[in-house]
Design brief:
alpha/beta
Length: about 110
């Protein structure tokens, strides 16, 4: 399985602390990670965590079995996971939204099952 972590950084040059913490907690499970962020992690951290960087989230989700959302809510992320984004995901993939509810369009998720 490939857990994927979309998040957006609030710090310059580093991944957000919550998204990075999720990647670190998943490391013992020896799975491939995919992530997206405004700022790419250092190559050494990507290697340590077995993580692959995808600049746009749309390019990342087709590779994911589980998507965990750990980003702040702002105009760019409101309803980010809508019918269009969900259509790019693997059939049967899971979304775990630990962020704000409005990042996912509830109606689109409900009708995608």
């Amino acid at each position: 399985p490939i857990p994927c972590v979309p998040w957006q950084s609030q710090t310059s040059g580093q991944a957000g602390r919550i998204g990075l913490a999720v990647l670190r907690r998943m490391k013992p499970f020896d799975v491939k990670h995919a992530y997206t962020d405004r700022h790419r992690l250092p190559e050494a951290v990507e290697k340590e965590l077995n993580a692959v960087y995808y600049p746009p989230v749309e390019a990342m989700v087709p590779h994911c079995d589980v998507v965990t959302i750990n980003c702040p809510l702002h105009p760019e992320t409101e309803h980010l996971f809508n019918k269009n984004m969900i259509s790019k995901m693997k059939r049967g993939a899971y979304i775990v939204n630990t962020a704000r509810g409005k990042i996912c369009n509830r109606d689109d998720i409900a009708t995608s099952a």
